[in-house]
Amino acid sequence: MDVIGPLLLVVATLLILLVSGNNTVACVGNLIGARVVSTSAALLMEVAGVSLGLIFQGTRMATAAEHLAKGLSSGVVLVVLTITLGLFVVGALHEATSFPDCHPACAARRCRPGL
Description:
The protein has 4 helices and no strands. It is an all-alpha fold. The chain has one domain (4-110). The longest helix has 30 residues, at 4-33.
């Protein structure tokens, strides 16, 4: 039984979730944070933008990905995607330990109730 196919699907899905969440924050996070538009309006704009991007660029992106992976075995693709996922996890853990919620140096600015 081939286990690489299902593993590829799981790892690729996790990467898609991580990257799309990161892109969503980059695209509409400032709009929400600055209160330019409501959260629901910003997310609606993001959904519309992603949907239009998939409609107009989806086949081109799939073709580009196919050309990039041409000649690679599914095992090699799994290793590359797993390393990429590991980098996301290491980055998240590093950020969580490097920037605690209430660091003494910034306690006066950020950790006051109501801010």
